[in-house]
RNA sequence: GUGGUCGUAGCUCAGUUGGUUAGAGCGCCAGGUUGUGGCCCUGGAGGUCGGGGGUUCAAUCCCCCUCGAUCACCCCA
């Protein structure tokens, strides 16, 4: 009988953490540490949390992200039930936009700053830093064209990394221009590459038909050489987009964010226009992108809005963030430990242990005790392993006399405490 | 979907040019200390050496198949 295993590309987050292949799966405490940092930073940005379903209509994702993208064409976990097509969300921007439109959040006035944390799903072949179920957090600023919102999106992502103690990353930015810029540029790219097509790899040759922009981020050495002579996207964008882009760069510079302009930074989701950016870390191996995002002014109309709703946002991978934290030695986080562990000498008075634990818990303390009838030594070891602050030692006589031993595990000191005063004494020293 | 690498205890890994009961460290359990943890010492549990087939007197080791893991391409977080 084979044991069941988690599906490839998914993993369990355990209390203690473990290694899986070359990946270190961090303990839950690290995950919470990250999630709390995200929430702190988001609050500073005035962002409010939004939670959307894991399941979305397939059509929303297909239209939002784009039929020809890899995500939609080959990486969706999608299924049909009755007359409805469902998909496990591969990202959260389109769902957030859907929710924004569905609930008419524009009616609440102003610009909405919405953030999320949660799982996403893509049917890719797993590898280091890439999973089938992975976790993202992100910010969407919906309802403004202001270049400050683009810059704010970038600083917000960076602030999460800074908050967690990361320092080593690079920001790459580019502008894709407006709706009309891309077709013009695509044509220019085609004009450049078609005569050279015999020098291109098979994948890139196919892309000339399907999505020529994707040739720009090839890793192939020879193609990179060819790219040096290729037309530059920035030369094809409209004046307004150019001004907008300059303005984004100025704002970033004003607040001391350094970045590199990458004329070949396109992204694999169709909804981007104008600003795009990626934040990457050198410590991550092949999957080096920590976060990515950009402006998506066209998305709202793609998913059925009559009005164009301008928006920008970023999405960041939590697994990759944790990998970077591990590499930077910033992933050591204290996990919760009990205030006290009750040791029963010779396993006497199980009922008393149970009810005492309950009443101490009722007073807000975290209490553990042995459930296996183990020796006192083993109970002490267990208390030590769990990092209990105190051990309550109770034997037959202690309980009848109403006075137990309270041992402070940090320095080994021990005192007699009457049972009625236990919660007060343990609680008083809570730091 | 395509390539490379690797499968020995819960974890990290030794090992056998094919030869009796397959090892270590960590972890776990117990004892050393009959009411006291961390350190130390002793002992113990735990493995069909991924699975199937073949070669051989004999396979964990050699061959074939298969399954799984992993890294990379592609793409993205």
Structural write-up:
- A hairpin with a 5-residue loop joins strand 17 and strand 18.
- Helix 1 (28-44) runs antiparallel to helix 5 (147-163).
- The protein contains 15 helices and 18 strands.
- The model has no long low-confidence stretch (mean pLDDT 90).
- It has two domains: 18-178 and 237-327, 2-Layer Sandwich (BirA Bifunctional Protein, domain 2), CATH 3.30.930.10; 340-425, 3-Layer(aba) Sandwich (Rossmann fold).
- By secondary structure, the chain is α+β, with helices and mostly antiparallel strands.
- It has an eight-stranded mixed beta sheet, sandwiched between helices.
- It has helices at residues 28-44, 58-65, 70-74, 93-102, 147-163, 181-193, 202-210, 221-227, 239-254, 299-302, 318-327, 350-362, 376-385, 396-401, 422-428, and strands at 18-20, 23-25, 48-49, 55-57, 78-81, 84-88, 112-121, 133-142, 170-175, 260-261, 273-280, 289-295, 311-317, 340-344, 367-369, 390-394, 403-408, 414-418.
- The chain is elongated and about 95 Å long.
- It binds one RNA strand of 77 nucleotides through strand 1, helix 3, strand 8, strand 12 and strand 13.
């Amino acid at each position: 009988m084979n044991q069941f295993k988690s599906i490839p590309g998914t993993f369990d987050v355990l209390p203690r953490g473990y290694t899986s292949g070359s990946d270190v799966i961090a303990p839950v405490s690290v995950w919470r540490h990250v999630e709390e940092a995200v929430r702190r930073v988001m609050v500073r940005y005035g962002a409010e949390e939004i939670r959307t379903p894991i399941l979305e209509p397939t059509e929303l994702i297909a239209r939002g992200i784009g039929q020809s993208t890899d995500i939609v064409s080959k990486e969706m976990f999608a299924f049909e039930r009755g007359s409805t097509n469902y998909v496990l969300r591969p990202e959260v921007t389109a769902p957030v936009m859907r929710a924004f439109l569905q609930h008419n959040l524009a009616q609440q006035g102003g610009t909405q700053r919405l953030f999320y944390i949660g799982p996403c799903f893509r049917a890719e072949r797993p590898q280091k830093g890439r999973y089938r179920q992975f976790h993202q957090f992100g910010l969407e600023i919906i309802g403004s064209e202001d270049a400050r919102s683009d810059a704010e999106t970038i600083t917000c992502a960076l602030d999460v990394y800074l908050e967690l103690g990361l320092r080593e990353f690079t920001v790459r930015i580019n502008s894709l221009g407006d709706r009309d810029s891309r077709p013009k540029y695509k044509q220019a790219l085609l004009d450049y590459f078609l005569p050279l097509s015999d020098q291109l790899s098979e994948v890139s040759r196919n892309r000339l038909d399907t999505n020529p922009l994707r040739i720009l981020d090839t890793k192939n050495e020879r193609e990179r050489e060819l790219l040096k002579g290729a037309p530059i996207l920035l030369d094809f964008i409209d004046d307004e987009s150019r001004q907008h882009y300059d303005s984004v760069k100025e704002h970033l510079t004003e607040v001391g964010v350094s970045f590199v302009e990458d004329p070949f930074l396109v992204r694999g989701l169709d909804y981007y226009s104008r600003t795009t950016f990626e934040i990457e870390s050198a410590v991550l191996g092949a999957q080096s992108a920590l976060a990515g995002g950009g402006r998506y002014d066209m998305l709202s109309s793609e998913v059925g809005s009559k009005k164009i709703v301008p928006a920008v946002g970023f999405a960041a991978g939590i697994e990759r963030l944790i990998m970077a934290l591990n590499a930077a030695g910033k992933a050591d986080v204290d996990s919760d430990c009990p205030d006290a562990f009750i040791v029963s000498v010779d396993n006497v008075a199980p009922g008393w242990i149970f009810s005492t634990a309950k009443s101490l818990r009722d007073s807000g303390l975290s209490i553990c005790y042995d459930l296996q009838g183990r020796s006192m030594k083993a109970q002490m070891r267990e208390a030590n392993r769990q990092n209990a602050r105190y051990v309550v030692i109770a034997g037959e006589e202690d309980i009848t006399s109403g006075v137990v031993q309270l041992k402070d595990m940090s320095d080994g000191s021990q005192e007699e405490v009457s049972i009625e005063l236990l919660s007060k004494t343990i609680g008083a020293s809570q730091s």
